[in-house]
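Renewal narrative, Specific Aim 1. Our central claim is that a sequence can be written position by position from structural information alone. The example that follows is taken directly from our test logs and has not been curated for this report. It begins with the C-alpha cells describing the chain, in the order in which they were read.
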C-alpha cells in the first residue's frame, strides 16, 4: 500500500467513524412513532403461542412441527401467521450480556429456527420479560432492552411478547415505550405484545408503546374464567382499534377443558371483541371440532375486519346478551347472540339496537355457514346454554346516519362567557368531529341520547339544569375533534342525563393528543353534575370518551353538557 493510499484510507476511516458517531446519538435519541401508527398489526395479530398447552416444554422440534401443521392444516391460508415461543427458551446471558437460547432444546439456534418459519410463509415470535427475570425465573430484559431488541432483530424475530414479572415497581408505560424505541431502532417491523395482565391500565397508554395489551389475568381452560375474562375485556372496547388491540389472552380452543359449544363461544367472543387470535393448542393433533372452530373463515373475517371496532353489548336481558360490531361495510353488523346461562333461551336482535335502518336485512349464520333469509326489523334464535350464535346482518336499504344534521341552534345560554374579540368560544356541537361513535343511537347534538335514530333524545338535563347545547351519547362512546392547536380551554358539565333517574353509570375521560388529561371516576345516575375545566393549549386532537362501568351499559345516557372550547381567532 502506498503512503497516499494509506492516507486516503485513514481519511475515509475517520470520516466514516465521525459519521457513525454523529448518526448514533440521533438515531437512539429520536423517539419512535406511536406504535399504533407504525403500520404493524393493522388487524388483530393471528398465530400460535406455546404457553397454554406446552408451558416450559418448548423445543426446536415442537416449533418446527407446529409451523408445519399451521401450513398443512390450512391455518396459514386463513390468516394465522405468528409462531411464538413463550417462556423458558432462554437459559443465561453470555459474558457480553447477550441472551442465550437453551442449546439442548434449540440446538440449531434461533436464527435457523426463524429461517425455517419464514421459509413457510410464517412469522417468528419470542417471549421476554420487562423485569429482571421471566415469570418462570429465566433471565429477563431489564437493563438489556436495547441489546435484546438488537439480538431479536438479528435472529429475524417479528413479534415480541414482553411479560411483567419481577418488574421491581417500574412504570409500565415508560418501560414498554423503551422497548418500542429499542425495537424501532432495529429497523425491523416487530409487533410488541404488552403483558401486564391489566395492571397499570394499559388500555390508557398501550397503543403508544405496543400493538396489543393484555387486559386481564391469565386465561385457564375453564368456563367460569372464560366468562370473567370476557366481562373484563368487554368494557375496554373503546381502547381497541387498528394498530392497537385489547388482548384478553390466548385461545384455549382444543385444550380439552371446555365443551365444543363453549369453545365456539370463546372463539366468537374473541372475534367480536377484535382480539388477537393466538391459538394455544397442539396444532399437530387437532380434532375436527377444533379445526372447524379455528378455521371458521367467516368468524375470522369478523375479527379481522379492517374497521377494527370492537363489539359492544347493545342489549342485556338477565344476562341474555346481544353484542354488535360495526364492520367496514356500513350497512353491515356482526352480531353475537350470547347465552352465558345454563338454560336454552331465545334471544332477539332488533335492528334498532344495532343502528340499522328499520326494514329488511339479510341474516347470515356464521357457524352454520347458512343464510337465514331476509327478515324485517328483528331476528330471534334459540341459543343453547353457554352458546353463541354469530350473525352477519346486512341492511337492504341503508341510511347513512352516523351523525345527524345539526338541529337548529338554540339561542346562546345566559352563562356565555364575556366575549373577548380575540377569542371565540365554539360549542363542540357546532364543530364537525373527525370521529364519532356511540354505543346506541348516533351522537346527539344538543339533545340527550335516545338510543335509537337521530334526534330522538330530550333536551340535555343534568340535575335540574337544562342545557341548550351539548353532546348526548350512550356509553361506550368516543368523539374526536381536530382543534388545530388553536384552542386554550375546554369546559363542560358532565353527568348522566336526568332522564335515566338513579340508573346507569359511566366514566368520562378527556384525551389531548393521545394523553389522558381528565378522568371523572365513576359517575352514577342522579349524581350532581360535575363541572370540568381543562387547559388545552396547542392541542390538536381533543377526544371525549365515555367508558362503561360494568358488563351492561344500560341507561348510560351520558351528557357533555354545554361542552365548548376557547380558541384564538386567526
Ligand atoms: C405470565 C403470562 C403468561 C405466560 C407466563 C409464562 O403468567 O401472563 O401468558 O407468558 O407468564 O411464564
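The sequence written for that structure reads:
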Amino acid at each position: 500500500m502506498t503512503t497516499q493510499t494509506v492516507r486516503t484510507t485513514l481519511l475515509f476511516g475517520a470520516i466514516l467513524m465521525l459519521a457513525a458517531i454523529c448518526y448514533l446519538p440521533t438515531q437512539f435519541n429520536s423517539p419512535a412513532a406511536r406504535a399504533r401508527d407504525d403500520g404493524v398489526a393493522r388487524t388483530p395479530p393471528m398465530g400460535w403461542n406455546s404457553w397454554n398447552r406446552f408451558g416450559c416444554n418448548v423445543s426446536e422440534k415442537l416449533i418446527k412441527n407446529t409451523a408445519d401443521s399451521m401450513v398443512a392444516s390450512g391455518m396459514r391460508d386463513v390468516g394465522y401467521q405468528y409462531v411464538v415461543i413463550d417462556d423458558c427458551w432462554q437459559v443465561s446471558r453470555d459474558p457480553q450480556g447477550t441472551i442465550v437460547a437453551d442449546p439442548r432444546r434449540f440446538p440449531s439456534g434461533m436464527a435457523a429456527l426463524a429461517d425455517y418459519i419464514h421459509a413457510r410463509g410464517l412469522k417468528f415470535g419470542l417471549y421476554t420479560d420487562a423485569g429482571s427475570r421471566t415469570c418462570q425465573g429465566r433471565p429477563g430484559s431489564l437493563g438489556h432492552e436495547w441489546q435484546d431488541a438488537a439480538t431479536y432483530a438479528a435472529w429475524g424475530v417479528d413479534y415480541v411478547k414482553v411479560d411483567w414479572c419481577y418488574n421491581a415497581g417500574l412504570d409500565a408505560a415508560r418501560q414498554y415505550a423503551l422497548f418500542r424505541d429499542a425495537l424501532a431502532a432495529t429497523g425491523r417491523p416487530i409487533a410488541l405484545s404488552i403483558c401486564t395482565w391489566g395492571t397499570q391500565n394499559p388500555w390508557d397508554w398501550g397503543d403508544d408503546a405496543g400493538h396489543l395489551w393484555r387486559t386481564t389475568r391469565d386465561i385457564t381452560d375453564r368456563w367460569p374464567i372464560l366468562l370473567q375474562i370476557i366481562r373484563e375485556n368487554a368494557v375496554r372496547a373503546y381502547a381497541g382499534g387498528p394498530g392497537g388491540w385489547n388482548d384478553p389472552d390466548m385461545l384455549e380452543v382444543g385444550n380439552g377443558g371446555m365443551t365444543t359449544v363453549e369453545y365456539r363461544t370463546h372463539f366468537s367472543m374473541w372475534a367480536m371483541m377484535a382480539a388477537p387470535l393466538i391459538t394455544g393448542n397442539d396444532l399437530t393433533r387437532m380434532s375436527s371440532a377444533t379445526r372447524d372452530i379455528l378455521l371458521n373463515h367467516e368468524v375470522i373475517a369478523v375479527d379481522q375486519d379492517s374497521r377494527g371496532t370492537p363489539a359492544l353489548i347493545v342489549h342485556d336481558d338477565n344476562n341474555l346478551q346481544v353484542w354488535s360490531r360495526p364492520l367496514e361495510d356500513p350497512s353491515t353488523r356482526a352480531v353475537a347472540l350470547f347465552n352465558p346461562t345454563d338454560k336454552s333461551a331465545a334471544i332477539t336482535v332488533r335492528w334498532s339496537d344495532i343502528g340499522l335502518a328499520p326494514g329488511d336485512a339479510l341474516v347470515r349464520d356464521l357457524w352454520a355457514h347458512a343464510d337465514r333469509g331476509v327478515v324485517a326489523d328483528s331476528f330471534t334464535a334459540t341459543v343453547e346454554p353457554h352458546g353463541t350464535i354469530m350473525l352477519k346482518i346486512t341492511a337492504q336499504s341503508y341510511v347513512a346516519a352516523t351523525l345527524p344534521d345539526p338541529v337548529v341552534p338554540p339561542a346562546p345560554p345566559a352563562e356565555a362567557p364575556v366575549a373577548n374579540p380575540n377569542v371565540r368560544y365554539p360549542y363542540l356541537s357546532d364543530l364537525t368531529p373527525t370521529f364519532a361513535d356511540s354505543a346506541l343511537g348516533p351522537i346527539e347534538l344538543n339533545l340527550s341520547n335516545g338510543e335509537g335514530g337521530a334526534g330522538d333524545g330530550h333536551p340535555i338535563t343534568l340535575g335540574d339544569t337544562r342545557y341548550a347545547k351539548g353532546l348526548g351519547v350512550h356509553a361506550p362512546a368516543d368523539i374526536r375533534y381536530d382543534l388545530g392547536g388553536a384552542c386554550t380551554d375546554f369546559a363542560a358539565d358532565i353527568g348522566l342525563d336526568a332522564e335515566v333517574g338513579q340508573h346507569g353509570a359511566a366514566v368520562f375521560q378527556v384525551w389531548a393528543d393521545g394523553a389522558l388529561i381528565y378522568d371523572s371516576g365513576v359517575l352514577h345516575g342522579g349524581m350532581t353534575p360535575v363541572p370540568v375545566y381543562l387547559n388545552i393549549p396547542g392541542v390538536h386532537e381533543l377526544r371525549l370518551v365515555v367508558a362503561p362501568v360494568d358488563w351492561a351499559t344500560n341507561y348510560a345516557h351520558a351528557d357533555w353538557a354545554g361542552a365548548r372550547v376557547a380558541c384564538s381567532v386567526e
